[in-house]
Amino acid sequence: MSPEQARAAKDIDFRADIYSLALHPLSHAQPGRPPYEATTTLGIMMRPDQRSAARDLQGVAAGARRPCGRLVHRMLAKETHQRHQSYEELLAELMAVHDKLKADAEEVQAGSNSIDS
């Protein structure tokens, strides 16, 4: 549940879905560790420091690449204006992260092949 849903805000929009979408990889990256720390669910949703961001994915999933962490970090912003402002913007960033990770993998593979030669 997004922070604005927990506050019962009147202006909930698609950005609540973007927040929820980001929770999926975090919950699978390290079960039992929520993206925000607090002693109660209410504490997570209503903490006074609304600017605090989710832990970077780097610290949650071993081996995660930095672009993935930045993407999830933005998707989990507590304030809606800090999240992607359209699905198109989210898709563009997802594609950029994909392309970066693919290029990195190809570079590693090419380096591995040159060592084998």
Query: Approximately how much beta-strand content do the residues carry?
Result: under 5%
Spans of at least 5 consecutive residues with low confidence: 48-54
Rg for CA atoms: 17 Å
**Rounded average pLDDT:** 75
Structural shape: elongated
Q: Helices and strands: which structural class?
A: mainly alpha
Stated plainly, the CATH topology is called Transferase(Phosphotransferase), domain 1
CATH superfamily: Transferase(Phosphotransferase) domain 1
Percentage of helical residues?
55-70%
Question: What is this structure's SSE topology?
Answer:
Elements: H1 3-6, H2 15-29, H3 41-46, H4 57-60, H5 66-75, H6 87-116
Describe the protein in words.
This protein has 117 residues and is an all-alpha fold. The protein contains six helices and no strands. It has one domain: Transferase(Phosphotransferase), domain 1 (Orthogonal Bundle).
